[in-house]
Amino acid sequence: MSKRDYYSVLGVSKDASEKDIKKAYKKLAMKYHPDKNPGDATAEGSFKEVKEAYETLTDTSKRRKYDQFGHAGFENSGFGGGQGRSQGFGGFEDIFGDAFGQRRQGFGGAGGFDDVFSQARNRQPRAQKGQDVEYSVTVDFVDAIQGAEKVVELPVNGEQKKINIKIPKGIKEEEKIRFSGKGAPGLNGGPAGNMFIKILIRPHAYLERDGNDLICHSEVNITTATLGGELEVQALENRFKLKIPAGTQNGRKFKVTGKGVTSRKGETGDLLVKIKVVTPTNLTREQTELMEQFKATLV
């Protein structure tokens, strides 16, 4: 079965910005996330398809390749390498030595050619450091918050190698991890450059980061919001019941101090539970009548 076009999967145009792509992914990820569709194989397949499209289109080099070749561009991907430079200059001394040797006597005491080419041969080229290189790696939202290890295959000094990347706890979007001496080879005996891994973070279905605060988007039905009740909250390792006061409005936030994100500097924010009041649809006849009766009592 042929793969669907990645832009069609996310429902965006081919000139969509990275912001539009992230927005579309987040919406679809929430819709098809396994936590919201337990046991639904179709939803799980759609979630994987959306995730694959997102990872390709938010990686600049992969997107450029996909736009040019489509899915075929990834069927036999790899990194090629050219051969060493031609060694055809090895006869330089012999060629010029013979040519000037035949004329050496004609120049008498002037004979500066031997000195000139002797100096050129003895001059040592200056060592140069290799260029720095940069790659992007996408990690899960939870891994960026809690820290993790990820093994990726990247070209190092011209060869494909598996690199073990330690994702620091609390790393932010587009922060970089440095690997000294893993960049392009140096010239004339110079040191290799550095390799930088730019971290991209895959959006979560219902969690969001704002500085060091962790925002958990939670849904409650209209009766709970109106009459009050309890809401079970799951935010990373934090699992608890939150009391919802009567008359809670859509968008209200409840703060749990010190349960947010711990940054790389050791600073910890708060957990903010943001309420979304869900309006019921497809009411039964009895439910509609009850709502009509309730409506009649409002001034």
From TrEMBL:
The keyword DNA-binding does not apply. SMART domains: DnaJ (SM00271). PROSITE patterns: DNAJ_1, DNAJ_2. The keyword Chaperone applies. Keywords: Chaperone. SUPFAM superfamilies: Chaperone J-domain (SSF46565), HSP40/DnaJ peptide-binding domain (SSF49493). Residues 5-70 form the J domain. It comes from the Bacteria. This is DnaJ C-terminal domain-containing protein.
